[in-house]
Amino acid sequence: MTPAASIRFDILTIFPGMFVGPLDQSILGRARQDGLIDVHLHDLRDWTHDRHRTVDDYPFGGGAGMVMKPEPIFEALEAIRPLAEPAPYVIYLSPQGRRLDRALVDELAAHPRLLLLCGRYEGVDERVLAHAVDLEVSVGDFVVSGGELPAMMLLDAVARRVPGVLGGEGSLAEESFEDGLLEYPQFTRPAVFREWAVPDVLLSGHHAEVEKWRRRERLLRTQARRPDLLEGAVMTAKERAWLAAQAGGVADPGFAQREVDGVIFQARVAVVATSQGRVLLHRTAGDTIWSLPGGRLKVGEPVAEAARREMQEEAGMRVRPGEILWVHENFFEFASALDGPGAGRPARHHEIGIYVEATVPPRFEEQAVFTGSELAGTAREFALEFRWFEAAELASVDVRPAAVRPRLEALLEARR
Ligand code: 9D3
Asked: Separation of 146 CA from ligand 1 center, angstroms?
């Protein structure tokens, strides 16, 4: 899509004053001075004929709010159209419009003349849309008070595509960066600010290393923040493979866990280790919530094997799994696992918890308290505290899920 050499914008609004500041500043101000864009503001009320310069009226059929009358709009359009050649492509800024994105900006920049109609109130009479408007454009799925600010965004984005507006190489750079990836992080002096240091590689002077680092940051950021962009991004096969392998540390490690419509479904084993009338609970160091140790099942993994694996990983403990005591369906809202589909974000969980009995090696029975770790050997490792609890002690701590507390109490009672 070749941009026009210069673009004329005609803006039809009841608030022409809203445009005055922004159009005189910075890039748009210079582009106008240089004749690269030409902006003409038109006050819709100039085409009214009553004393109050009325542009709105009640909606037929009733309902809240007012609707912009068709007559002043048609009269204005008919007066503005012949002010220049060619006739303008008429755009109505509207929440019902096509979403403004890079592709639409490029399409619009190919027109030498655009007329931007800004609505207020609940919008314009439908006959304006049917018979005078070429395209409706929205700037996003959120509500603003009228079409003026969206029109300004459109104008700014389109003007930047006109050759010369960005001062020659700027527009080219914008184009070459259009590989569909997010930008790399930027730093300036000082090299250390409030103890926060700029990454070493940027100070190294190794241009090739800097370029490699920036490219990797762009790939990782896009994956972490805008995975929707990855499909359409320009990447080498090698980069795609590398990124898939990184998977931001959230590659599916084979857990029986899936995210569907923002709900994380998972199967989890909870290890109920009892000894001498006590049950083993753990918590993240410093936290207040105690729970049974355990973790997600891997796909196809027997419950007993999952119990053994999780206790080995978390506590370096070789347990002997016994029978399944209970199966609970748990619903909760919590940060998801860091290495699963929710990648640590808060999410709704629908969990099948399988509670399996286990006996621990004697040396752990003798230790009232001991430590372990979760995600051992990863950058996200954190310390766990394990403690044996007697039935009477359970009432004084926050045990989750709450439903297991009475079950544990009854179990310990039966074991006495
Ligand atoms: C009864 C519902 N109306 C008010 C909440 C709907 C409504 C009417 C008019 C919502 C917004 C507006 C004014 N907005 C625009 O004219 C507009 C707009 C927007 O609100 N969001 C994103 N893009 C655009 S382009 C024009």
From this structure: 6
Which contacts (CB < 8 Å, 24+ apart) does range 156-161 have? 156/22, 156/27, 156/28, 157/100, 157/105, 158/7, 158/105, 158/108, 158/109, 158/114, 159/7, 159/27, 159/28, 159/31, 159/36, 159/37, 160/27, 161/3, 161/105, 161/106, 161/109
State yes or no: pLDDT of 385 exceeds 70. Answer: yes
Give Cα 265 distance to the centre of its chain: 21
- Whole-number pLDDT of residue 175: 64
The CA distance from 344 to 87, in Å, is: 54
Phi, psi of 196 (to 5 degrees): -95, 110
Angle at 95 between CA 93 and CA 100, to 5 degrees: 65
Backbone angles phi, psi at 304, to 5 degrees: -60, -40
Encoding tokens for residue 289? 């919530």
Dist. CA 114–CA 107, nearest whole Å: 12
Q: Cα(45)–Cα(15) distance, rounded to whole angstroms?
A: 9
Q: Is 146 in the pocket of ligand 1 (CB under 6 A)?
A: yes
Residue of 264, 255, 257 whose CA lies nearest to 333: 264
Query: Does the beta carbon of 123 sit less than 6 angstroms from any atom of ligand 1?
Result: yes
* CA–CA gap between residue 315 and residue 369 (Å, rounded): 12
Q: How far is CA 12 from CA 16, 154, 185, 204, in A?
A: 8, 14, 40, 54
Q: Are strands 398-399 and 289-290 parallel, antiparallel or unpaired?
A: parallel
Pairing state between β 56-57 and 67-68: antiparallel
Distance (Å) from CA 45 to ligand 1 centroid: 21
Residue 341 in contact with ligand 1 by CB distance below 6 A = no
Dmax of the chain from CA atoms? 96
H or E stretch at 244: helix 237-246
Tokens of 393: 């002690």
Give the separation between CA 218 and CA 3, rounded to whole angstroms: 28
* pLDDT tens-digit map of 138-148: 999 999 999 99
The secondary structure element, H or E, covering residue 80 is: helix 70-80
- d(C-alpha 159, C-alpha 228), whole Å: 27
DSSP letter for each residue of 187-212: --S-SEETTEEPPHHHHS--HHHHHH
| Residue 51 reports pLDDT greater than 70 | yes
Q: What is the pLDDT of residue 378?
A: 67
Q: Give this prediction's pTM.
A: 0.64
Tokens, residue 51: 């004393």
Joined tokens for residue 163: 């050759």
